[in-house]
Amino acid sequence: MHLVIIGGSDAGIAAALRARELSKDVRITVLLADDYPNYSICGLPYLIGGQTPDASKLAHRTTFPAVDMRLRHRVTAIDPAGKSVSIERPGGTTELQYDRLIVATGAHPVRPDIPGADLPGAFVLHTIDDGLAVLDAVRRHRAGKAVIVGAGYIGIEMAEALQQRGMHVTLLSRSDEVMPGVFSEIGAMIRERLTTEGVEVVTQAGVERIEQGMVVEQRLVVFTTDGRRRPADLVILATGVRPATDLARDAGIALGEGGAIAVSDTMATSHPDIFAAGDCAVTRHRLHGKPTWISLGTIAHKQGRVAGENAIGGSRTFHGIVGTQSLKLYDLVIARTGLSDTEAREEGYEPLTVEIGAWDHKSYYPGATQIGVWITGDVKTGRLLGVQMVGRAGAEVSKRLDIVAAGLFHGIGVDALNDLDLSYTPPLSSPWDPIQRAAQDWSHAAARSG
Amino acid sequence: MHLVIIGGSDAGIAAALRARELSKDVRITVLLADDYPNYSICGLPYLIGGQTPDASKLAHRTTFPAVDMRLRHRVTAIDPAGKSVSIERPGGTTELQYDRLIVATGAHPVRPDIPGADLPGAFVLHTIDDGLAVLDAVRRHRAGKAVIVGAGYIGIEMAEALQQRGMHVTLLSRSDEVMPGVFSEIGAMIRERLTTEGVEVVTQAGVERIEQGMVVEQRLVVFTTDGRRRPADLVILATGVRPATDLARDAGIALGEGGAIAVSDTMATSHPDIFAAGDCAVTRHRLHGKPTWISLGTIAHKQGRVAGENAIGGSRTFHGIVGTQSLKLYDLVIARTGLSDTEAREEGYEPLTVEIGAWDHKSYYPGATQIGVWITGDVKTGRLLGVQMVGRAGAEVSKRLDIVAAGLFHGIGVDALNDLDLSYTPPLSSPWDPIQRAAQDWSHAAARSG
């Protein structure tokens, strides 16, 4: 059996490794468009910010025993009838037959549809080559001005990175607040933190166009919807990604939510013998059961592992997501899981959100810091819908959030958080963990509101 | 309705607060033997170690609105037929009628049955008064010698505390290793860490007797089973606790596992209208379903909350424990949940334990440290049985362990840990959390062994 995998990032490599782990006999070929197998693109902000000076360290792993890794092999077409793929590679083109195919083509960054978005000096950030290009520009403009378009995870991480490099950074958010995926109070804390560090944050600011500057040849000018002109040595377009599905679509493979490849829970596509995984594929949200699309390394790894197992004859199920994400910004940690209030309402729930502040550990032991917990549950059923959390690095915020994620995965009620037998020692927590304190306050509030 | 609660520590106060929260009408009286309502006795090592200089800060809370807190009211008898309790208080004795009673009498420290165990200078450590007495002795013997008998959680925490105070500390363990509740490799790491800090750790050392020293009046001499005589200005007897159930037993209330009060899942005792909660009561281990007895604040809070609700007419269930505990020792964090290999075997499981080392976050981001994960599962069924973890403070070890505790609570298989949608950002974790990496290695090892 010959298993061919298109894509050598998280999903593709996870698939290859799982197939290799389960079978000694299957022949495995991974086709990569670039030179960087299994690189952590989530690490690009740290390459650019300087915390990770050596780009080669971004590789999750560097050896792939008994996997045929073909770099600079760009697939140009899939022929499902002939069970082959067409490839452009250095020196020409070729074809490769497969018995089973896994499409793990990932996502493309979205360049906004505005004049000047493709000028030199305006960068998207998705591949290692993108990152190296930005790094090069940063080095040329150490004390210069950077404008970041888009204030989601990447935009915020890049604001810290470029500020750390000594640049004058402006972060533009189209919304009323930064980080649209979290409660606006949390967004405000992020904005304030960035502002404290010297980043100029502008909300309700769309970009109309980008022009080449007249005076200084290399400088760009960003025209924003608030009527301002912002000169920039460097523009980062962090306006999201879309699934890279041209190949799949051209091969007649069915697409689904968000234009991503439609897959079953076994990661099978509409075509026999073709699986898909990672950013190019649809996923399923456990809290509403519906297909959704989201670009995250954790999902790519999980889907890839399932696809790798099933492509060689296994029958594993991908169990879906609950929407867990985290962000570190300076010494702040922000994490969320589940549905926000707004998302929950859209899904027909009757959400109630309660916010508490609690010490990460007993305040009589030195170093205690406050954690903010926003907990959302369905008033009708008591079901736990989501939690968002903010605290200091060192306060175990991200893994504390994951306790909730584990509960959400099992569909528990808010009140059931109190039943969990969680660890406690005064330097690290409290007898009731902050998430349990929040659950208690929620139940109390829900009883009053009901 | 008059709810009387005997005991004002974790369980008693949790019960009072919950009853108060649910009902405005019930009259609530809490009878405390001492002066310290709702104090965190888990904090005693930090009072003595100096991290918490002010004992009053150990109070979890200091106000108890609409709860009648009676300090120095020691209950001497319960009369279930007459629904009253007899009380010794400053100035005399009295009786108090109840409609519902919650026994939350906690635990007593065990003074080992050896000659000299009650000499002045030989301390147990369980109440705030105990802690203050030890603190006083520590202040009188700053550069003196301390011998700690017993190398469980309290003994180990006290070794750090007294070493931090400048004392020469000897920690005696009867077992082959310190901290019998964890894998011996973890015990060895704890022992090495203590040794590095200058604590003398002696294993396989029981105590035969303690004598008053001849030369220096105030000094004790500890005679150990290895034939050594160890002079000590201060001896800490950290040899465990037993449930404080004399009152209950004398009232004819049925006792159970470990001599603790037998309770149903609603915290009801064998007597109508009498509930029990906390260290004096039996608990249930979810991994074998059997009654067990364990003294922990987290359990006391949970049981107290359930007892408080049910005593006033509610019908809440205490859902049992999975055996979660954590310890901070200098900058090491040790945490465990579930059953150890040995415990699992005793319960009829066929346990397999796999150990891995993994970075707490992506090693390309500064500050990554190694976490050791020991994962135990049942080879026959694939069921997750337990995890033990060791890492540095700041590596989110204790709350990472709690993700497993949440999974264990739901009875998941080892492999199902991989399905959990956990948070990832390079400065805080990896796309597969270390607990998931451990689960993958376990499944691989189990497949090979099967």
Automatic annotation (TrEMBL), chains A, B:
- UniProt-listed SUPFAM superfamilies: FAD/NAD(P)-binding domain, FAD/NAD-linked reductases, dimerisation (C-terminal) domain
Alphabetical UniProt keywords: FAD, Flavoprotein, Oxidoreductase, Redox-active center
The protein's matches in InterPro entries, at most eight in alphabetical order, are given as: FAD-bd_OxRdtase, FAD/NAD-bd_sf, FAD/NAD-binding_dom, FAD/NAD-linked_Rdtase_dimer_sf, Pyr_nucl-diS_OxRdtase_dimer
Cofactor(s) required, per the database record: FAD
> Organism's domain of life?
Bacteria
Tell me which residues make up the FAD/NAD(P)-binding domain: 2-304
Span-the-membrane segments of this chain are none
Residue ranges of the Pyridine nucleotide-disulphide oxidoreductase dimerisation domain?
A: 328-429
Give the GO molecular function terms.
oxidoreductase activity
Q: Which family does it belong to?
A: Belongs to the class-III pyridine nucleotide-disulfide oxidoreductase family.
| Name listed for the protein in its UniProt record | CoA-disulfide reductase
